[in-house]
Give the backbone structure.
Amino acid sequence: MAVIEHARNHLALWLIALYLPFWLTAIYFILPGHRVGFVLRAAGDTVWAQGNELTQITGAINAVTQIVGFMMFTVTFRSGAFDRRLALAGFPRGHLVAAKTCVLVALSTVIACYTAALMTLFWDQRRTWLLALALLLAAMTYGAFGVLLATSVRGELEGMFLVLMISIVDVGLQNPIANHAAGNDLISMLPTYGAMQTASAAGFSSVVPYSHLALQLTWFAVLSALGLIVFHRNTRDRTALPAAYGNSRRKS
């Protein structure tokens, strides 16, 4: 049922099919392709890259985080009342969470691999598989963030706005072309810092940044745990119903 709900989100499907290739194409051919040097902390050195290729990485991460975050938020928000009814009826809440997590991983994998494949049409990355992995972890992180927002905010509009704006600020500050202070220590506290470092290393370095991969996984785990806690608070367990029913009977 979670998969069916995502399949009904026609706007998101059109964004994947049309927006992603258009966005990546526009970045590559419109932005200047002159070489720029930037400090890549994952490699511990200054690396050189074409400006449009480097910006395409930030654009790809920005796009996949927004799309997956938007999809997970929308489906979780709209199914919130149904999930609560299932929990009240005795359906295991762990199964509900597991279903959302499995769909999140599958959805993120498809979009990340699709985006990485599109990028290979424009330029040759050192390791495309590592680029796809970075996109996958970034998408999973914002998917978990979307689930957390869906169980926390009261309105659909504010949740979608938060996903959009946080992703823009997060990724935009890490682009060394747009922000010459992208090497600031505070940048490492942003949600997609690990994915950005990994993707940049995949494109322009021979280093595999295991520590940054672990950092991105930590962000995903923390946001998923927070979403799980809020979900459990918002859904009552059926074992509490008999006691509550008995109390109401005695009061009456």
In short: Residues 51-78 form the longest helix (28 residues).
